[in-house]
Design brief:
Layout: H1 4-7, E1 13-22, H2 26-41, E2 47-56, H3 63-70, E3 78-85, H4 94-100, H5 114-138, E4 144-148, E5 152-154, E6 170-173, E7 176-177, E8 182-183, E9 187-190, H6 192-198, H7 201-210, H8 220-230, E10 234-237, E11 242-248, E12 251-256, H9 259-265, H10 267-270
Parallel strand pairs: 1-2, 1-4, 2-3, 6-10
Antiparallel strand pairs: 4-9, 5-11, 7-8, 11-12
Helix pairs in contact: 7-8
Amino acid sequence: MQPLQAICPPVMMTTAVLISGGVSNLASLRAFRDSLITNLIGKSEDVEFHLFFYVRLPSDMDKEELDQELKRTGSDRVWIHRITIEDESNTKNEAQIRVDHPHYNYSAPFEFNQFNTLSMYWKLYVADQFRRRYEFETGVTFDAVVRIRPDLVLHDALDLRTLDLRRADMVHVPWFNSSMRLAFDQLAIGPPEAMRSYAKAYYNVPYLTESSALTLGFHPEHTLYMHLQDAGLSLCKLQCSTSIARRNGDGVEMVDSFARLRSEFGSAALAAS
């Protein structure tokens, strides 16, 4: 008699990976790619990965070079469906952001740069629209959606099959602090319903502003936390340490993902969730 595994092979899990943000240089991109392969793709057996990119490239990189680097995944479980480079034809400049956000003011009265925060959320929204269009055109239904920056390096194994993705209102993030109303904004994993709401932050910011919900101004982690609360999403801590692969000449240096938060709130605040 054949073993049960041979009779009933595991059902393949289908995952969309939304990669949005800025690529600082080739070394940073390779660090991101290699950690994605090693600690996510390589550790999640029986999982297909469908990648959707909306990224900004430095002046010394072009789309062809990006294509070549991304093809080196070494896995037959990875598909790259869309690579869109941010340019004047598809981005939101400051004038367009002002139309979408009547409250917009580059400086006062908010301490944090609204343009950077809103640009980040716009890129995420576009990447998720690519994912949703693919679902509509192909009939594919994703089991999970991953949001990640193109310069984030994963240091721990992430097996998607170990996460509870049954709740349509839960998002997994490496860190959050409910008392301070902050949520890590560089990596998130959840079911499609939750991540669809997650990705709509760009269009929810006007309401958050008008309702005076953003008590810390446009602090990016605070804005995200308040958006997720308003969307009715719960947060679950994801056991994964990360770094940002930041440009250092032609090379790269690993920067603590929490460096800015530590300087703003202290290490004690980051220990609590």
